[in-house]
Amino acid sequence: LLCIFFFSRVLECQGLPIVNGQCDPYATVTLAGPSRQSEAKKTKVKKKTNNPHFDEVFYFEVTRPSSYNKKSHFDIEDVDEVDKMEIRVDLWNASNLKFGDEFLGELRLPLKFLRQSSSYEAWYFLQPRDNGNKSLKPDDLGSLRLNVVYTEDHVFSSDYYSPLRDLLLKSADVEPVSASAAHILGEVCREKQEAAIPLVRLFLHYGKIVPFISAIANAEVKRTQDPNTIFRGNSLTSKCIDETMKLAGMHYLQVTLKPIIDEICQVHKPCEIDPVKLKDGENLENNRENLRQYVDRIFTVITKSGVSCPTVMCDIFFSLRESAAKRFQGDLDVRYTAVSSFIFLRFFAPAILSPNLFQLTPHHPDPQTSRTLTLISKTIQTLGSLSKSKSANFKESYMATFYDYFNEQKYADAVKNFLDLISSSGRRDHKSIEQPILLKEGFMIKRAQGRKRFGMKNFKKRWFRLTNHEFTYQKSKGDHPLCSIPIENILAVERLEEESFKMKNMFQVIQPDRRVLYIQANNCVEAKDWIDILTKVSQCNKKRLTVYHPSAYLNGHWLCCKATADNTPGCTPCTGGLPANIQLDIDGDRETERIYSLFNLYMPKLEKMQEACGSKSVYDGPEEEEYSTFIIDDPKETYKTLKLIIEGVGTLEQEHAQYKRDKFKKTKYGSQEHPIGDKSFQTYIRQQSEISAHSI
């Protein structure tokens, strides 16, 4: 009996896709042939990695067919049979979803190829699955039209990108901003989204996203004629803010919406309010009440979530509010609609409508839940719009009827208070025409700060008032302030341990020169609300403390650490209260490389834009039609920037060409740098062959 043994060692994978926020890969190995029953052998599942290291060996045995008798030999037909076999390796993502594990890719290795060598090791690109089911006709499964874009970037070390990166990062300071490199990228790209994604990531990485978006938003507002259309188009500003909210606000969405979205997906309460679509046994009034409760709960968690809104989003909303208020001073609502058009229309409403796209659910909801979420999203979007005739916003009469539940002033007030909070800033702008925004007020008890050397440090009831500019207290509401603390002087806001004064619900507002204001709130909920909102408005202060004393300084020592000097640094790390900003895993060089690739791709448009600048400089008449698509406010400045962009792109293009020449000469097909299936390598070899033949 002649037997042939094969063994396959599955070593490792790199760069597997992350599905629904996780990757738990495993591999199956199969030896298959025309007359051989496939047997699949499986590796262990590697948890939470898209670069798994398996290093597992699988053995396969091939014998002659059972129809042969013992005396017969293993002839040439058997060899042909072996040559028709193949080893197939499939990669899967272990999933808890009811739809089963997700297929990640496969590779197929014919034994005919492997028999040329006793041992073979190489890297391979994973390929899409080959169904292999011959019984299905092409028409049986329908058809799908796709537009797929494949992008491959090689990223150099950081110094290669310095000229282009510096040119991009100073975009916010260029006057006018339309002459900046970042704005020009938005002008030449076919889709604004193409430019927005790498620009936002680059500016976030270097901490310059707020001034950049403020500059392009202010320019767009100046070009807007009607306040009702502000930020309604798919402009570079809108796309950049959308992308920033997706990156910075993902955690914010998780803590705000996920609990109730999970409940809606699991409980499946009937919420259909269209009489035509009611199912048998459903009651219209019960459904309306179910939907009303869901809308009420989601509306409440959103409007109460202002203190959790990421700082970078708040700073952007502040600049939008300022620009809109200056441009349309006669419209008092535009300062709200400029912000609500993003936070409600482009952030919360889409997340409710399609929670799977915002990582709130692992997959698309079932049809009934999807319908419920659609109705909730429509209502929340309308509540957030603050339009004067809200019922008229609905084409469907049943939605207009349902919205009557929410035609109360308390909903509009809640939206405005929420928008005030997320669009406030502790930074004073002396050019601002906006009045200070009132964020919170109410009676509390405060301990005297001891400003007078021999004054008594007793406790008194005072009316406290917080705006985005200052924190004040007075004897009664409407009185002149007895004390005013500018927001920039709030260095920390922390709880105070009860042992200090034998009083509950106390917190401390720490100021420069070791001054501390001790305050007692009416209850624990009020104390938390005050701490959160004070922390929110002061978290951007550059001199914020990192440590503090959780107890008071009494009788010549700190009660917490027993230190005797009143100027002893804090003994406990500050809680921070709220995330001051976002931490993103962004590679600035990779994003600059992506921007270079876009500039290189749209080089003809850059050159056309140069022509348009020249035409505008010498001819001040009507624009030629081919140039009318470009926004060019200052032809000379725009031309200068275009020249620098083209020079920088040309230099990087030469570096890439040299890198490819060097790399392809030194690397081997089947290595990690060029896995089998790497079409770029095959294309390059073919091109080099054609060039050599042409030279000869």
TrEMBL record:
Pfam families found in the cross-reference section: BTK, C2, PH, RasGAP
Keyword Mitochondrion in record: no
Keywords: GTPase activation, Metal-binding, Repeat, Signal, Zinc, Zinc-finger
Residue ranges of domain PH in the record: 437-539
Organism: Oceanodroma tethys
Keyword Signal: yes
Gene: Rasa3
GO molecular function, one term: GTPase activator activity
Domain C2: 1-124
Name under which the protein is recorded: RASA3 protein
Residues of the Ras-GAP domain: 191-385
Signal peptide as annotated in the record: 1-15
GO BP terms, alphabetized: intracellular signal transduction; negative regulation of Ras protein signal transduction
